[in-house]
Design goal:
Shape: globular
Number of domains: 1
Strand content: 5-15%
Distance between the termini: 35 Å
Length: about 70
Amino acid sequence: LDGPDVEAVFLSCTAMPSLEVIEAIEARLGKPAVGSNQATLWAMRALAGLPAGPLGVGRLLSLPGPDADTWR
């Protein structure tokens, strides 16, 4: 996880309480970390027309999400 060829960490389990620890993982590794629930929240927030902004659950949610045309 700490090698130069690792760009990000994906936590693939919706039962894992990753939202509570995403920011700590990112801080410790110095790399983005994305969980399944976080990715779903990011996409749904964008599709609902809500603005991007930090919510305290990692870097991803500060980025703009896909627009509705992406999903058609």
